[in-house]
Amino acid sequence: MHTVCGMTALLETTNLTVSFGDRAGWFRPAREVLAVRSASIALQAGEVLAVVGESGSGKTTLARALLGLVPIAAGEIRYDGCDTATMTAPQALAMRRSVQMVFQDPFGSLDPRLPVGAIIAEPLDIHGIGSPASRRARVAELLGLVGLAADAAGRYPHQFSGGQRQRIAFARALAPSPRVIIADEPLSALDVSIQSQMLNMAAELRARLGLAYLIISHDLAAVHHIADRVATMYLGRIVEVADVDELFTRPAHPYTAALLAAVPRIGAGKWMPGAALGGDIPSPLAPPTGCAFHPRCPAASSLCATATPEMRAIRAGHDVACHHPLGTA
Amino acid sequence: MSGTWHANSWLSGAGRVASLRGGRGTASCTDDQRPLRVATALTEPLLLGRALTVELGPAHDRTSVITGLDFSLAAGRTLGVVGESGCGKSMTALAIMGLAPSPHRIGGVLRFAGQDLLTMPQDRRRQLRGADMAMIFQEPMTALNPVVPVGVQIAEMLIVHDNASETAAWRGAVALLDRGGIADPARRARAYPDELSGGMRQRVMIAMAIACKPRLLIADEPTTALDVSVQAQILDLLLELQRDTGMAMVFISHNLGVVSAVADDIMVMYAGRALETGPAQRVLTAPAHPYTAGLIATLPDIGRRQKILPVIEGSPVNPRNRPPGCAFAPRCPRVIAECRTGLPAMVMVSPGQEAACIRCAA
Prior knowledge:
Strand content of chain B: 15-25%
Number of domains of chain A: 1
Strand content of chain A: 15-25%
Number of helices of chain A: 10
CATH superfamily of chain A: P-loop containing nucleotide triphosphate hydrolases
Largest sheet of chain A: 8 strands, mixed
Helix content of chain A: 25-40%
Oligomer: heterodimer
CATH architecture of chain A: 3-Layer(aba) Sandwich
Largest interface: A-B, 47 and 50 residues
Distance between the termini of chain A: 50 Å
Number of helices of chain B: 13
CATH class of chain A: Alpha Beta
CATH topology of chain A: Rossmann fold
CATH topology of chain B: Rossmann fold
Radius of gyration of chain B: 21 Å
Helix content of chain B: 25-40%
Shape of chain B: globular
Largest sheet of chain B: 8 strands, mixed
Order of helices and strands of chain A: EEEEHEEHEHHHEHEHEEHHHEE
Number of strands of chain B: 12
Radius of gyration of chain A: 21 Å
Number of domains of chain B: 1
Number of strands of chain A: 13
């Protein structure tokens, strides 16, 4: 099934750029928004990579581009070493089987008029995997994998709680035996006590099936728990990538540091006003010159306003796009 | 808001505030003229709930959504209400505000500034609401009127409650936006909600809520829809406002970290009941009820990495089909047979800290 084009990362982007635009109106020039700007990331087989950042940072668009749900303006995406732009049809089909998605809202992502068994079997139908009888057996097996009873197959999504629905969404994603699961905010719609159940399930499935995850999340504590590596995005650019412990203990980009400092922690006592990062993420229609973060950055210099910092390694496995990375002075 | 109001404000341009017509309460909210403020007994807390019960639905089909809630809140302090979806925390807020969906029946005691809220005539309740007690909601986009400039929406508060003139109200709205930490408030006041970011919309909501210097601010998941960085800004703003005005806050959130950051006292709710109450740092660092302890243990924490997170099995129970006995019993790791039959009473476990658990009493 897998045509080997070269031994590289499982899923990789190089200088990926995604732009959204509209045509000029009568009184308005055409506008272009670069939602993702020259993003290069690599997801290794079996790895958990988390992408964090504020809303509007482009993390969801990055995930959608990886799935082929939005056209890319420049750069390339490689799956198993093959460029998706020049893939043959069988290669593209294999990729679509192998890269599956779990969405944020388990109330919106499951068809309310299909029984759960049909929802989970749909990817098998689409990809023509197995006979009808073997599909039924596979559905029962998948329900077991995500911790639901086999009789769930005959029931409808509305009969399940949010956490159970997210399990169903997971079972559907697992149906065609993928190698990568891309999950966009998979926890944020769930109750606190359900989130930990999901985190444990995701970790167990990964160990059992050798899955790689690309997780989009703004919940830094959950990211710290589950991820191997973390990428921080700001206004369409990836500004820092590092191993999870390195990033959380020694963030080099002031933006990552500010995000970490903003997480209120239990038992840390009352909030001290004044520590918050000021301002909002700027409009991608009119991004600041130089480093996009410089208007909010406590460490900004005149250089930051003019020159866009390139990604560079400050330590092994720790890349940052900053003129004045923290902890290196 | 009336249709007249929309049309007028639309036509009059964003720089002016349209006049309001007819039928509005005109309670002033300047301090010396506030008639309802006098009655406060010295010994009574600002907000007091005793055995508060909320039932929803028509008489033949009532569902009890809140049962036997006790709480009190003094001026300048913050009560954090935590719990999962369906536990009744938002309904508690709505009951305090007098906004519980009809038909409903509210029982027990609910007092604010020495007055009985439950027997108060509706028009007096309306005078209190917005002026003495205000509320901010989770999703500012749906709580704001999308077709009215935000400055007009804030100015409306000052016109309705403060009898302010249009120009004075507009000036007041701009000043409030400035107080809410919005840069260039005179320009932003003319903006419509969709032109503002989520954080700025929440600042507008807060500006509107504090317009009449309320003595009680109820914040229902005010930062849940926001990014952590913006959440930090909003927490900054709320605490700063509280320090300056001495208002009391009821802060509702499912996020224990956020509650830990703002609350003096905490009430943990489950299926319409309080399971544990007490000083915030005490409850969060030495929880007594197995539910509170479970909730805290299940949270992944930066700096304390575990391979497998402890979990609370099962899902939160809906108050509509609450089991007999302790509602948490089906999920409780410490459950014994008695839990499933008798309803546990609140017992003191440490000074100021109480838990409704027979295992804590033993």
